[in-house]
Design goal:
two-stranded antiparallel ribbon, about 50% helix, Phosphorylase Kinase, domain 1
């Protein structure tokens, strides 16, 4: 029996157990289809019944059936704080089975691609920023013992993401000698930047808040893929959304969206910074976040030979170069990166 067939049988048996628990009003499976995976190792199946549909996730099983996955812990917290996340109908930790609300197939990215006007684009992103803030405003004193409050985008974590890009993009993808003097100069500056970012006030951040991790159901935006949430500057999420490598926002809209976020939310969060200081921090965060994304795209190709993400590398690199071009303090690093990239 092929692995995919055995997984389908497993999913159907697990779903039947859910029905027997009287957690659902459905009583018969009509079809099960495997869904296209994301960049993770989790596997997803859509289960069609006579009345509706659900999505079953097969994640890593818990060895003792007691240790709850971070995804479920965070789903419970976010749902309890009125952040719109998928509903959970059932779970079986020993098999890694999680039965979720079916959010459909329309991502923020698919929806934004069909807009009619620039105003529609702006309004769509305003909703995403407001939803993002519903995560950032959570009172973490209530969750001080939760594991995600112990994790942070400190200097070590931010710089580890830069090292990740060094390995998979500079070394493996471009084939460069990463011990060269120029790369050492580049990374010394990146370390200083990571240290500066990590010194900023922190809140709970999604960590991967972009157009593929927001779903659209009945016109409502819903957050997914939040299991890696941790403490950090809220600009990590803002940059993830507005400097998304999957979709290029109109520049005028982006400028207004950045101003909206600063005036509506950031001034209350950190009143010590004027807009110029905020924008400087935003640009540093953008350099770090987008450079990390380049490493992720290169990693997916190296690890899985998945060509879908290669097309984003060039756009992401130009974004990093363009941001650096606006800041004289990054002139040396911009030139180093450009000489390395354009020589290949």
């Amino acid at each position: 029996m092929k692995p995919e067939q055995s997984e389908r049988i497993l999913v159907e048996e697990l779903f039947k157990k859910t029905i027997h628990k009287n957690l659902l009003n459905d009583d018969m499976v009509e079809n099960i289809e495997k869904l296209t995976g994301d960049a993770s190792t989790r596997k997803y199946y859509r289960i069609w019944t006579q009345k509706t549909s659900y999505v079953a996730c097969l994640d890593n099983p818990s060895t003792d059936g007691q240790e709850e996955p971070t995804f479920l812990k965070l789903q419970r917290v976010l749902h309890g704080e009125n952040v719109r996340v998928p509903l959970i109908h059932d779970k079986e930790l020993t098999t890694g089975y999680i039965l979720e609300e079916d959010l459909g197939d329309v991502t923020f990215l698919k929806e934004i691609a069909q807009i009619n006007t620039l105003k529609d684009e702006y309004d769509f992103y305003i909703k995403a920023i407001d939803l993002m803030h519903s995560i950032h405003k959570i009172d973490l004193k209530k969750y001080k013992d939760e594991p995600f409050t112990k994790l942070a985008f400190d200097t070590e974590k931010l710089y580890a993401e830069m090292e990740f890009t060094k390995k998979y993009f500079l070394k493996m993808y471009l084939g460069l000698d990463v011990s060269s003097a120029s790369i050492e100069i580049l990374y010394a500056r990146l370390y200083e930047m990571c240290f500066a970012i990590s010194s900023e006030p922190r809140t709970l951040v999604h960590r991967d808040y972009h157009s593929r991790n927001l779903m659209i159901k009945n016109g409502e935006q819903i957050v997914i893929d939040f299991q890696d949430a941790r403490m950090g500057t809220p600009l990590y999420d803002l940059v993830s959304l507005l400097e998304d490598c999957y979709y290029q926002i109109d520049e005028v809209n982006k400028k207004q969206l950045i101003e909206y976020y600063y005036n509506t939310y950031f001034k209350k969060f950190d009143s010590t910074k004027n807009f110029e200081q905020f924008k400087s921090l935003y640009d540093m965060m953008a350099i770090q976040r987008v450079f990390k994304a380049i490493g992720s795209f290169a990693y997916i190709y190296a690890d899985r030979k998945d060509l879908r993400y290669i097309k984003y590398i060039g756009y992401a690199f130009e974004k990093v170069r363009s941001i650096m071009l606006n800041h004289e303090q990054f002139a040396k690093e911009r030139k180093i990166l450009s000489s390395l990239y354009y020589a290949n």
